Amino acid sequence: MLAKMKSALASQSKVIEVINRKTGEKFIEKIYGEDAMRVFYGNKFRANMTSHLLTNRFVSNVYGAFNDSAASKYKIEEFIHTMNIDISECEKDISEYKSFNDFFARKLRPQVRPIENSPNSIASPGDGRLLVFPKIDATTISYIKWAPIKLIDLFHGNNSLEERYKNGSCAVLRLCPVDYHRFHFPVSGKAGVTKSIPGLLHSVNPYALEQGINVFCLNKRTICELDSNDFGKILLMEVGALFVGSVVQTYRPGTDITKGEEKGFFKFGGSTCIFFFEHDTMEFSPDLIQNSAAGIESFVHMGEQIGQLVSF
Fold first, then answer.
1. Rounded distance between C-alpha atoms, residue 300 and residue 172, angstroms
2. Mind listing the pLDDT tens digit for each residue in 205-239?
3. Please, which residues bridge with residue 238 across strands?
4. Distance (Å, rounded) from C-alpha 214 to C-alpha 147?
5. Is 93 considered catalytic here?
6. Cα 132 to the chain's mean position, in Å?
7. Alpha-carbon distance 247 to 220, whole Å?
8. Is residue 307 very low, low, confident or very high in pLDDT (cuts 50, 70, 90)?
9. Residue (of 68, 42, 61, 99) closest to 201 by Cα position
10. Alpha carbon distance 121, 116 (integer Å)
11. How many angstroms separate the CA atoms of 101 and 71, rounded?
12. What percent of the chain shows pLDDT beyond 90?
């Protein structure tokens, strides 16, 4: 019976191709907990059950509390081995991490993520898989494998935000559990207050997105506007996900920040950063536009250039 179940799950495996931006080569993403993703989101029925049973804050808070505890330390070495994490990038020795979440939200040594310092450039706010939308279709972000995302729903009914960013540009940075899970400011400016929007906690994995679940509009998320001198206003959004204990902000609102400065971090779980630019203020790098148009995410590192000030 168990063998039949494993065989059935294997037949539903999803191949997620990503382009390594540095080499230009495609690779197959290794999904942490893929069997669970297939169980939770393998078809419409499973996705519906997951929505009713697992996407509430109570479940994520309980799991998050465990990952914050010393009892979870045993998971660190297995996680490093399974996901082939380069521990030479870590700020601390592995023995110094006090819990699984302490390691998961690890800081890196500064020199391993240099920040693109040209004043006209936009830096990636984090490590992850990036899709770019050079121009939002009026008021909707659409991608062939997703349910269309209406800005008014994503912005929780805020008409002024919809008006500001419609016909603008947008990028979606998907963080997998293997990735560095701190996020940063893509340009310099004055950072506003981060506001929370209540919601569920679906997975942001393609297993969920490709079931037509409007994950980004349903999930708990945050909104913060960054007022920059050269790029106008930029909207920064962090989206919570299945089993994410919390999204932690570490910056000081109302202060001037520099490009690459840390904004916050995600605790355990795959998570997403979405960021919006106003109409005709910036342009994404050509390779990112080309890959995204083909429906393929590009793997990027925090700090590398992903766009620039628009040139006329």
1. 12
2. 776 777 777 888 888 899 999 999 899 999 999 99
3. 222, 273
4. 6
5. no
6. 13
7. 10
8. very high
9. 61
10. 7
11. 11
12. 61
Is 127 an annotated catalytic residue?
A: yes
**CA 28 to chain centroid:** 18
Q: Is residue 311 flagged as an active site residue? A: no
3-state class (DSSP) for residue 68: helix
Structure tokens at 226: 């960054």
The encoded tokens of residue 103 equal 């390691």
What are the distances in angstroms from CA 244 to CA 60, 66, 170? Answer: 6, 12, 24
Catalytic residue, candidates 51, 72, 203, 271: 271
Which among 51, 121, 124, 127 is annotated as catalytic? 127
User: Where do the H-state alpha helices sit in 252-298?
Assistant: 286-293
Which of these is catalytic: 184, 188, 203, 285? 184
Element (H, E) at 182: strand 182-184
Q: Looking at residues 170-186, what average pLDDT do you find?
A: 94
The pair of three-digit structure tokens given for residue 203, joined into one six-digit string? 């997975």
pLDDT band at 35 (very low <50, low <70, confident <90, very high): low
